[in-house]
Design a protein that fits this description.
This protein is mainly α and about 240 residues long. It is about 70% helix and about 0% strand. It is globular, with a radius of gyration of 20 Å.
């Protein structure tokens, strides 16, 4: 009879296996550049800023897990650019740096002086042939993301961000089919919406609201009043429900 170990034990076992010795061919090893420190950097970044994804990543095979940490670490780097950089010109330069660095992994893969996230992604691309489309869309959307005016805008934002990360992760698992793509798109959109709703209290506290503007107007919600005194009103409940 099969023994079922507790979830915590299985998670710890998976976590330890992430850093076990790799079994790859000599040809593959010449093309790989990431170090254990690079992988650990990405792991810690995801563990700190995207804990739910970190937990789920522990159930992926080792190489797909490392790829996922690299993908999500890139997303975190992009998300934190506006908070870590003050001037618009510096923000644009940071986005341009990541765009040129990641796209360069496909065109002219120079591995010298790459940041840890780029080295981990380099290896994921070498192993799994992850499409540049997903990473290009992600970087572009993070850079050009504008106000969410309609629910359709929010859905497109989810397709161009979280869904792209899921598509790339599926490719690292060697899953490439229409049904998986449709599921990735749906999960990406729903994850974006749920994250937006869960983070609303924090958003309002910082003078921000990502609820679509048309829904706010439909339910007569004054965003400025919410910024001043966030409270759970019937109008806000209806807007969130919709």
């Amino acid at each position: 009879m099969r023994k079922f170990t507790p979830l915590a034990l299985r998670l710890c076992t998976a976590h330890r296996s992430a850093f076990s010795v790799r079994t790859i061919t000599s040809t593959q090893s010449k093309a790989l550049v990431s170090t254990r420190d690079d992988i650990e950097y990405c792991r810690r970044l995801v563990h700190k800023h995207d804990y739910e994804t970190y937990l789920s990543s522990l159930f992926s095979p080792r190489y797909a897990r490392e790829a996922l940490w690299g993908l999500r670490a890139l997303n975190i780097e992009l998300l934190t650019i506006p908070t870590h950089t003050r001037t618009p010109s510096a923000i644009s330069m940071r986005y341009a740096f990541w765009h040129n660095t990641i796209m360069g992994l496909y065109t002219q893969p120079q591995t010298q002086n790459l940041p840890p996230v780029a080295r981990v992604l380099h290896d994921a691309i070498q192993r799994s042939k992850i499409s540049r489309t997903w990473l290009r869309r992600l970087i572009s959307e993070r850079q050009t993301s504008t106000a969410i005016n309609t629910l359709d805008d929010l859905q497109k934002h989810g397709e161009r961000t979280i869904a792209c990360l899921i598509h790339a992760h599926l490719e690292s698992l060697d899953v490439r089919n229409m049904h998986a793509d449709n599921a990735a798109r749906a999960i990406g959109v729903s994850s974006t919406i749920s994250h937006m709703l869960r983070s609303m209290p924090e958003q309002l506290a910082h003078g921000r609201c990502d609820l679509p503007r048309d829904i706010l107007a439909k339910h007569n919600i004054n965003v400025q009043e919410l910024y001043k005194a966030p409270k759970n009103t019937p109008e806000l409940q209806n807007a969130v429900y919709e």
